[in-house]
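[job 4471] stage=fold_predict status=RUNNING
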Amino acid sequence: MENKENAEKVVKIVRDYKNEPNKNLTFAMDFIMSDFENTKENIIKLTKHLDKLENTYNTLLSEYKKRTETK
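[job 4471] inference complete, writing structure tokens
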């Protein structure tokens, strides 16, 4: 729940960043950097997962094609 509250706080800071104190700008930048790194890690993990799925599918498809060839 705290993360959602922090996200809402960051949205408010970003909307009026020109009038926010440096402390709030620093808070927002830290939150955004953390979110960026977390998102990047998730994308990398998902990319690896997709690659494995694709390889597995292609292996199964190749075997299926061999089995269903008409001779």
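[job 4471] summary: The radius of gyration is 23 Å.
[job 4471] exit 0
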